[in-house]
Write a structure and sequence with these properties.
seven-stranded mixed β-sheet, alpha/beta, globular, 23% strand, 2 domains
Length: 326
């Protein structure tokens, strides 16, 4: 038995070393050529509770004041993402842009949204540093990773299910992606896009996704804003849409504003760091003014006229008083 445990320990150490070497080889060259970008510094304490304010903190991390509900998505708040060893150090790609806010500045949260279990979206060291009073809404089976961190309210959603926190309804819907955390080993977790709504103000937070028409179903009651991942398509086009495909999916939703995420933060693929955003702007052509939050650390607020229209529509909607599925 002792020999077997020793052999397993040696195998685990060798596996970790192999991962470390692979990570260094994969990312060293890319990071040498990637230039640091300037970032903004959001001031969420100044955001009003009667508006939709959003800041991008890099990669897929958005901080929102959603009409008084404070929401954080897929938090990755440290220098690296990847294989974390008890928050002591992490093997994986290093940030090109520094985090606009530190975990200590993110202690006033109501909701944390997790779209899927990939390590750049479900980052254990980041979650450990966030307030355990927040409700975590995650995809199928992800609670087994999140609950041990000390969160007391972890709600898993499958596609079509919804839940509510402080008047904010969160409904899970599909994407064209995948959910394994340890490919090719281990079991698969779920992966969710989310539709958020409060008082008629709707938003789509799309999971990483290849090109798909699944989001066209939203056009009958379109969101005001849709957040889509725009990077990591070369060579991962089967799981990550390119910018032109993202623009097409955005148009299918009927949303007015497009908020690009998953770009300019970590080098996860072959395309140049600034290519996803520049290609997206070109794809939009004379409608490029609909693309908001083009700087990491930037803050955007849904314009007042759009807010008023959405609130009025919400008051007259027959679904306004309906309760969530769960």
């Amino acid at each position: 038995m002792t020999r077997r445990l020793a052999a397993l320990g040696i195998f685990a150490a060798a596996f970790a070393l192999a991962l470390a070497c692979a990570a260094m080889r994969s990312y060293a060259g890319a990071m040498e050529s990637a230039a640091d970008q300037s970032v903004g510094h959001p001031n969420p304490a100044a955001w009003p509770d009667n508006a939709l304010s959003i800041a991008t903190l890099g990669h897929a991390t958005l901080l929102m004041n959603y009409l008084g509900v404070r929401v954080l998505t897929d938090p990755s708040l440290f220098d690296r993402v990847g294989l974390a060893f008890d928050s002591i150090f992490t093997i994986g790609p290093r940030r090109v842009t520094p985090p606009p806010l530190a975990p200590g500045e993110l202690q006033n949260l109501d909701v944390i949204l997790i779209t899927h279990a990939h390590m750049d979206h479900l980052d254990i060291p980041s979650l450990k540093r966030l307030p355990k009073s927040a409700t975590v809404i995650a995809c199928d089976k992800c609670s087994e990773l999140i609950t041990p961190l000390g969160f007391t309210d972890v709600r898993e959603l499958k596609w079509g299910e919804s839940t509510e926190i402080k008047g904010l309804t969160v409904r899970a819907m599909a994407a064209k992606h995948w959910g394994k955390r340890w490919p090719p080993f281990g079991g698969a977790y779920g992966f969710n896009s989310y539709v958020l709504e409060k008082n008629g103000v709707r938003m789509l937070l799309a999971c990483d996704s290849a090109a798909t028409e699944v989001f066209a179903a939203l056009a009958s009651d379109p969101p005001e804003v849709a957040a889509f991942s725009i990077g990591a398509y070369d060579p991962w086009i089967r799981n990550h849409a390119n910018p032109e495909q993202v623009w097409a999916m955005f148009q299918q939703t009927g949303a007015k504003y497009l908020l690009p995420i998953h770009w300019g933060t970590f080098k996860l693929s072959k395309e140049p760091m600034d290519e996803p955003l520049s290609r997206l702007i070109r794809a939009a052509g004379d409608q490029s003014n609909r693309i908001v939050l083009r700087q990491i650390g930037g803050t955007w607020q849904l314009p007042e006229n759009d807010m008023v229209r959405a609130l009025a529509a919400g008051e007259s909607s027959p679904h306004a008083a309906s309760s969530p599925a769960r």
